[in-house]
Design a protein that fits this description.
With 348 residues, this protein is α/β, with parallel strands linked by helices. The protein is built from 12 helices and 9 strands. The protein folds into 3 domains: 45 residues, no CATH class; 166 residues, 2-enoyl-CoA Hydratase, Chain A, domain 1 (Alpha-Beta Complex), CATH 3.90.226; 68 residues, no CATH class. 54% of the residues lie in helices and 15% in strands. Helix 6 links the parallel strand 4 and strand 5. The longest helix has 34 residues.
């Protein structure tokens, strides 16, 4: 017994030391992350990436001796370019042949539209350096979600439009409901042929467990100050008056949604397209919901001929706990996305 007691005491000491080390490590990580909490902007030159891909493909088609000659010529070319750039920098001369820039942003929206945090930073960064000849392309993918989240996301894009900056929205997969609210802010919408477009409507559903709880002799008391502070409830008994007010609020939100879309795209027959239906790209083009059929890839490749194309991403550093909880939230969001897809469009 004495041996077991000593062994248990030893294990307790070891556990205490491990916990102490974990606490200290967590504190250090948190202090470090507080300094870096703001995140960082990452800019990728898509034009250079495409040029490198072209070069790789061209070299792959050459035989061994030709590849050596090509690499030698490229090395000589890069050396000369670096020398000229250094000489111009010493003279304070800027490159006169600078191409206008295309700033590419990405928004892959979730149900709660939390990606708007990064979008607002990216828009702010672009506004800080953009020139009159530049333009912005947003690659958008979203089935919509909460009204206030997508309302803010659309407002961030509105900042570009208010500055008269050409904004093109490229939709490869889906821009529906709140996603289309964002898309319609653009001066031009380019959609892939089978992308899902539209769904200009508002939906809300809420389960009610009142009868189940009543059968179990469980009472729920709900106290509010204000006649419509709570219209429908999960656990209490819903009234017809509450349902009517809930529908009125839903219709009012739909009315605001319609007005916003019509303001952005006045050529639309808003009553015809604001039925909550969605359409594929080609159908959406016929109804005026989009302006052109094509993929974001072809759009950007076409712009590379006369522009420097740069991708801007804001990366938020996640806290230690968020790294564990974030994956679970992302899985739940993917599940909601699949439910939406099964209910709103045919499987194929």
């Amino acid at each position: 017994m004495e041996l077991l007691s000593q062994y248990g005491l030893f294990l307790a000491k070891i556990a205490t030391i491990v916990v102490a080390i974990a606490v200290v490590a967590t504190l250090i990580v948190n202090l470090t992350q507080r300094k870096r909490q703001r995140g960082e902007l990452r800019i990728t030159n898509l034009s250079e990436q495409y040029k490198e891909m072209q070069d790789d493909m061209s070299v792959a088609l050459l035989d061994g001796p030709q590849q050596k000659l090509w690499h030698k010529a490229q090395k000589k070319k890069h050396k000369l370019e670096a020398k000229n750039a250094k000489a111009n920098a010493k003279k304070g001369v800027t490159a006169s042949g600078d191409k206008p820039k295309v700033w590419v942003l990405d928004f892959k929206g979730s149900m709660d539209a939390h990606e708007v945090t990064a979008l607002r930073e990216e828009v702010t960064a672009v506004l800080a350096v953009i020139k009159p000849q530049d333009q912005v392309v947003l690659r958008l993918e979203s089935p919509g979600g909460v009204v206030h989240g997508y309302g803010l996301a659309a407002s961030q894009l509105q900042r570009l439009r208010d500055k008269n900056i050409p904004l093109t929205i490229a939709v490869d997969k889906v821009a529906a409901s709140g996603g289309y609210m964002m898309a319609c802010v653009g001066n031009r919408i380019v959609s892939a042929p089978f992308a899902i477009i539209g769904s200009i409507g508002v939906v809300a559903q809420i389960p009610n467990f009142h009868r189940f709880l009543k059968n179990k002799d469980i009472d729920i008391e709900l106290h509010t100050a204000g006649q419509y502070k709570r219209t429908l409830t999960l656990l209490g008994e819903n009234t017809e008056e509450g349902r009517q007010k809930f529908r009125e609020d839903l219709n009012e939100t739909h009315h605001l949604f319609k007005d916003f879309v019509h303001q952005m795209r006045p050529q639309l027959d808003i009553d015809q397209v604001a039925t909550g239906e969605h359409w594929y790209g080609q159908q959406a083009l016929e109804k005026g919901l989009v302006d052109e059929i094509g993929t974001s890839d072809d759009l950007l490749l076409g712009l590379m001929e006369g522009h420097e194309v740069l991708n801007v991403r804001y990366l938020q550093r996640k806290k230690l706990m968020d790294r564990f909880t974030g994956s679970a939230a992302e899985s739940a969001d993917h599940l909601l996305m699949r439910w939406w897809q099964r209910g709103q469009k045919p499987m194929m």
